[in-house]
Write a structure and sequence with these properties.
The complex is a heterodimer of chains A (97) and B (158). Chain A is built from 4 helices and 4 strands. Chain A is α+β, with helices and mostly antiparallel strands. Helix content of chain B is 23%, strand content 35%. Chain B is built from 3 helices and 8 strands. In chain B, a hairpin with a 4-residue loop joins strand 2 and strand 3. The chains are: A alpha+beta (97), B alpha+beta (158). Strand 4 of chain A pairs parallel with strand 2 of chain B.
């Protein structure tokens, strides 16, 4: 496990001596952090599993409000929209495919 | 869908803890108020794992417009992954919406670089990402997969 960056639910099941379905239940109940790769595939970063084992997982709390009013940032700064694009009809076909 | 200020603050706090619990290094997030009356945030986290030449960085940036009765609506976003150890980039963006709608007929676009800094397409057609959790999870799924990002399978908008 030491060389791995990610673990599967089966890896975790072996580590904890529980079934894979128990691990999936922990993931679905959001008690074990996991990356959902697809409907049936999850990957757990080793660092996340270490936090889980250490009981060091955090509970969410609301973010603080910044005391100052700032200039509005530009998302995608320096990234102008393309000058020439495909027609809306082509895009509509792609989206409906 | 509109949210109250308190709901946006809770959502932002949740995003930061989501990343932290996956092992990321995340500074305390701050919900900012802008001179336009909008609110928003930018959260940048370092992901666990290899650090050569630099750790992988993931960023969530959102801008929320004021709506009726003290509520806000998410209007723009940028979710970015720069995987320095694997030398690649993936991103989901929605910004400059009128310009993108006029030129491409879509509100959202994506970025994909199998080799960092060498995109084969500047903007890929994208579908909207509905929450930060969805955007971050999609980027994390790409990060956790050692294979190609699959840029060649996306539709280049130009």
């Amino acid at each position: 496990m030491q060389d791995k960056q990610f673990l599967s639910p089966n890896d975790i099941a072996s580590e904890l001596s529980v079934s894979a379905s128990t691990v999936l239940r922990l993931i679905h109940e959001q008690r074990l952090p996991a990356i959902r790769v697809s409907e049936r595939i999850y990957r757990i970063p080793v660092a996340a599993f270490e936090k889980y084992k250490a009981g060091a997982l955090e509970s969410p709390s609301p973010a603080r409000m910044s005391p100052e009013i700032k200039k509005r940032p530009s998302i995608g700064a320096g990234e102008p929209p393309p000058e020439v694009g495909e027609s809306a009809e082509v895009v509509a076909r792609v989206r409906s495919a | 869908m509109s949210e109250s200020l308190a709901q946006v603050a809770a959502y932002l706090g949740g995003l930061a803890v989501y990343l932290r619990n996956l092992g990321a290094e995340v500074p305390e997030p701050l919900l900012e108020r802008y001179d336009t009356g909008e609110i928003g945030f930018a959260v940048t986290a370092e992901l666990p794992g290899p650090t050569d030449p630099k750790p992988t960085v993931i960023t969530a940036q959102e801008i929320w417009n004021p709506a009726a009765a003290g509520r806000f609506e998410r209007a723009e976003y940028g979710y970015d992954l720069i995987d320095y150890p694997a030398n690649r980039r993936r991103a989901f963006h929605m910004h400059d919406v009128p310009a993108y709608l006029a030129r491409l007929g879509v509100t959202a676009h994506e970025h994909c670089e199998e080799v960092l800094g060498k995109p084969t397409c500047d903007h890929y057609l994208g579908l909207p990402v509905y929450t930060g959790y969805e955007g971050l999870n999609a980027l994390l799924a790409a990060w956790s997969d050692p294979g190609p990002l699959g840029c060649a399978g996306l539709r280049c908008a130009r």
